[in-house]
Design a protein that fits this description.
181 residues, alpha+beta, four-stranded antiparallel sheet, four-stranded mixed sheet, 28% strand, elongated, disordered N terminus
Length: 181
């Protein structure tokens, strides 16, 4: 019998050897759960925005998978990054585990929840963000931006098995000095 050891690194997440394409209905539903909590209309899936998101995800992959925004001015954009995982299913001659990189299992709900978690630092009353250093509220406010009506998302798997998810929104949110809802 082979020895099996899994190293679950990030927040107790799960891993799988092969990436699974994202499921549009799941990511739309995850967005709309967050939006319903603040009383803004549901988003609908946009194939056009998905094409734009996939183009940017591919560009990021082709340039070494940096985590950066596309700066397309007429679209809102959220980006999510997850590291690769590691799995060991065998040992070498010295009894040491032989580790291989794998794609971490990340659900659409986890991606949107990571953005929605920024709500803890956002005040609708004052339209301000009190996030700690290195954090922000802009992902959350884009998810709940009341004037946004469409979303399209894509993901890519990097050479090191990390993954980048990109969601585009129209009309764009996060307009200066405006409240999201």
């Amino acid at each position: 019998m082979k020895k099996i050891c899994l190293f679950i690194a990030l927040l107790g997440g799960s891993f799988n050897l092969h990436a699974v394409d994202l499921i549009p209905a799941n990511i739309v539903a995850a967005h709309n759960i967050v939006r319903a909590k603040v009383g803004v209309p549901n988003l609908v899936w946009s194939n056009k925005l998905t094409t734009q998101a996939q183009a940017w995800a591919n560009e990021l992959k082709n340039t070494g998978c940096p985590l950066k925004h596309s700066n397309v001015s007429d679209l809102g954009e959220n980006i999510y990054w997850a590291s690769s995982g590691k799995i060991a299913t065998d040992t070498d001659a010295n009894g040491e585990w032989i580790w291989i990189d794998i794609v971490q299992g990340v659900s659409e709900q986890q991606v949107v929840d990571s953005w929605a978690n920024e709500q803890q630092w956002y005040s609708i009353a004052t339209n301000t963000c009190n996030a700690p250093a290195g954090k922000s509220c802009g992902h959350y406010t884009q998810v709940v931006w009341g004037n946004s009506t469409e979303v399209g998302c894509a993901k890519t798997i990097c050479e090191d098995y990390a993954q980048i998810w990109v969601c585009n929104y129209a009309p764009a949110g996060n307009m200066n000095a405006k409240k999201p809802y």
